[in-house]
Inverse folding.
């Protein structure tokens, strides 16, 4: 039986619920960092299709597009394990986050695993490095 691809019948339980796994992982990271959701300025996520992004990451956490990086990933797509690095770089270089802002990085992996980290931006992107190549 494929429990992950259909509604369970009475008495059956899905093997895993990625939304619940993601929520628990994010809540643990926020607690460990000593911050609340309201302290998070932006969220960096994997670069998926809009529908997939919402179903997998944003909707379970109640995150709107504007708080994530959809404006960036919709143009550059999914790059695997570097999505979070380039997403954070985009936010910092574009000025979308600055000194004192906290950013939640999150990702999913094989086996219904989730990972996340809370970072605090300690400095703005240097004015001497400002350029127009930020996508």
């Amino acid at each position: 039986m494929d429990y992950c691809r259909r509604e369970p019948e009475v008495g059956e339980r899905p093997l895993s619920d990625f939304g619940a796994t993601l929520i628990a992982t994010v809540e643990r990271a926020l607690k460990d960092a000593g911050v609340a959701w309201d302290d998070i300025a932006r969220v960096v996520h994997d670069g998926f299709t809009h529908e997939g992004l919402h179903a997998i990451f944003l909707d379970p956490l109640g995150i709107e597009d504007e708080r994530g990086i959809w404006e960036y990933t919709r143009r550059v797509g999914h790059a695997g394990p570097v999505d979070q690095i380039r997403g954070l770089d985009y936010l910092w270089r574009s000025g979308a986050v600055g000194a004192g802002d906290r950013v939640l990085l999150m990702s999913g992996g094989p086996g219904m695993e989730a990972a996340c980290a809370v970072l605090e931006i300690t400095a703005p992107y240097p004015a001497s490095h400002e350029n127009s190549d930020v996508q």
Summary: The beta strands are 40-44, 102-109, 113-120. The mean pLDDT is 85. The first strand starts at residue 40 and ends at 44. The CA atoms of residues 93 and 125 lie 6 Å apart.
